[in-house]
Design brief:
The complex is a heterodimer of chains A (about 230) and B (about 350). Chain A is mainly alpha-helical. Chain A is about 80% helix and about 0% strand. The longest helix of chain A is centred in the last third of the chain and has 32 residues, at about 190-220. Chain A is globular, with a radius of gyration of 20 Å. Chain B contains nine helices and 21 strands. Classes of the chains: A mainly alpha (about 230), B alpha+beta (about 350).
């Protein structure tokens, strides 16, 4: 049983979700409310990880954060370290890979907020930014929770991108899905089964808790079924 | 110091009429101005332009000495800085906040508790909006708007979200609330009874243009043209030809009938004669007694349609004339379809407006 890998996966999922919450809310706000004509291009870019093979995405991320890339050089200058095959590099990749799983539910939640409520807030003298936090976010909580859970679960289960960007370094980049792959390669089916079962259990619990919680949230407002 | 709201804007919506509205509203008084017109005339758009929720294509909006919009200088003050209390049709109460939370939402040091008490909401302060009736939601919306210290209230069809009996009851309440808040207000409505009940002055809007403005009574009694007459609900509007003018009276011909009306001084020979149904009297037989009314027209009853305590009688006098009588008179006179009667209209009750 790979407790170290499981802990690493949970840690990665937690930070990925947190970063996506911080970055996804403004991104989704821009995508929902911007009058720019070319925003469909940004929408397409955000949705790319849904269709790209993880290997392709992982390959480009590897190039982008490599020691010879501008991002890699900047990171090296700031921290002295390197992004590829490190936890931080894995985090960057995870955030990009799970971006649509956060941004799309956020944006659809924002779009469902009645425009009249937003305008009412403006007319009451409340700024656009404050309106976002006082009206739009509270009314989109179910969608925001959904986006966070999806990001968390998606990161927990990612495999291809991790392999491309992180490699397989115990305690640094060996996530739980990779440890299962390793076990199977080593014909250690018993360990693979244990870890798989644990991951299955955790995933199910997270999703069950979410849907149960979401039902309660929805039951308060808006009317159930809407 | 001109303490008034001056709007002179143009705006074209895709698929709608071009809106061209020039409007002046004194801010010092606490009068209610009704923006009245048929659905789709652009009333809501004008309200949204004043609130800053939409931007005009050109023109200007000034409030006192502040410029809210200036097309030439590309200046647009956002709604947050205009301090306008805007109530949309369905009140837009925040569903995730309690009544108190809603009223306190935009409040700046205003006594929320006092406002709740004033609008009879103290007992409902901890309720959520979905537990409230339409009338209570309206009070929350008004209290919430006032808490943000507006200098002007804009109400878009404030009674249209309510069912019919509630609407009747709340019309009187709303009038009282509006006169109680001591603030100039613009109320949009397409309902004549609402306009009469709520407004001190009225502006008639048809097809995106402001056509006539003035005191409610004078606009309803003296429409400036046939479209305004139709909008304010004048039942009979007939094209007529002027035959003669003398001593402040004008004689016009409609089909074969001749009518005498008060001359408004417009020289055009082709006019419309506008006659309100309630100023048409029906007589059984011309009794021969002298009458002060100038116009006695032989007429045939086309139909009698009961409307609550009244009955609407359609008459054929060579042209179609509508009269309204009480059910009581209708029964006493036994008015039946096809009967020959006399329609009596005073010269002062016929409004002549220019045609073309």
């Amino acid at each position: 049983m790979e407790w170290q890998a499981l802990y690493l996966s949970l840690r990665l999922s937690f930070w990925t979700t947190l970063i996506l919450l911080a970055a996804g809310l403004p991104a989704a706000h821009w995508l929902t409310f911007s009058p720019r004509r070319w925003k469909f291009l940004v929408e397409a870019i955000v949705a790319l990880p849904l269709v790209l093979p993880p290997t392709v995405l992982g390959f480009y991320i590897l190039l982008a954060i490599g020691p010879h890339s501008p991002a890699g050089r900047l990171y090296a200058a700031l921290t002295g370290g390197m992004l590829p095959f490190s936890f931080q590099g894995l985090l960057v990749a995870s955030v990009l890979y799970s971006l649509p799983f956060a941004v799309q539910p956020f944006a659809s939640g924002f779009a469902a907020v009645d425009r009249k409520l937003i305008e009412a807030s403006w007319c009451l003298g409340v700024s656009r930014a404050a309106t976002f936090f006082r009206v739009i976010v509270p009314l989109a909580v179910p969608s925001i929770v959904t986006g966070m859970i999806l990001s968390f679960a998606h990161t927990l289960g990612e495999f291809g991108v991790v392999l491309m960007v992180g490699g397989n370094l115990a305690g640094i980049t060996r996530t739980v899905s990779i440890s299962i792959y390793d076990d199977v390669q080593a014909l250690d089916y018993r360990a693979a089964m244990h870890t798989s079962l644990l991951l299955l259990g955790i995933s199910f619990l997270v999703l069950a808790a979410t849907y149960g919680l979401r039902r309660r949230v929805w039951a308060v407002w808006p009317p159930y079924g809407q | 110091m001109d303490n008034e709201l001056r709007v002179d804007v143009r705006k074209r919506h895709a698929g709608g009429p071009e809106i061209a509205a020039a409007l002046r509203l004194p801010l010092g008084t606490h009068s209610v101005t009704v923006l009245f017109g048929p659905s789709g005339a652009g009333k809501t758009t004008v309200l949204r332009l004043i609130a800053g929720l939409d931007t005009p294509d050109s023109g200007s909006i000034r409030c006192g000495d502040e410029v809210w919009y200036d097309g030439a200088r590309r200046k647009h003050v956002p709604p947050q800085s205009r301090r306008v209390g805007y109530l949309s049709q369905d009140y837009a109460i925040f569903p995730h906040l309690t009544v108190r939370g809603n009223v306190a939402y935009g409040a700046h040091g205003w006594d929320v508790r006092g406002l709740l008490a004033r609008f009879d909401l103290s007992d409902l302060a901890d309720r959520h909006p979905r537990q409230l009736s339409g009338g209570q939601l309206q009070r929350v919306a008004l209290a919430r708007a006032l808490a943000a210290h507006p200098r002007l209230l804009l109400l878009d069809e404030p009674l249209s979200a309510l069912d019919a009996p509630t609407r009747l009851r709340l019309r009187a309440d709303l009038r009282q609330l509006l006169s109680g808040v001591q603030m100039p207000a613009i109320v949009v409505t397409h309902d004549r009874t609402e306009a009469l009940a709520l407004g001190d002055s009225i502006a008639i809007m048809i097809d995106g243009k402001l056509r006539q403005a003035g005191a409610v009574g004078s606009v309803f009694d003296c429409p400036a043209d046939a479209d305004v007459a139709a909008a304010v609900g004048v039942e009979t509007i007939c094209p007529a030809h002027v035959i003669s003018r003398s001593a402040g009276l004008v004689t016009v011909e409609i089909a074969d009938a001749r009518l005498v009306a008060v001359d408004i001084g417009d020289p055009s020979p082709e006019v419309f004669a506008c006659i309100r149904a309630e100023s048409v009297t029906i007589e059984r037989n011309s009794s021969g007694n002298p009458s002060s009314a100038r116009n006695h027209l032989p007429a045939r009853i086309v139909s009698v349609i009961p409307e609550g305590p009244l009955a609407r009688v359609a008459l054929d006098c060579g042209f179609r004339l509508t009269a309204i009588v009480t059910r009581q008179s209708e029964e006493e006179m036994q008015l039946r379809e096809g009967d020959q009667v006399t329609a009596v209209v005073k010269a002062t009750s016929i409004r002549i407006v220019p045609r073309g």
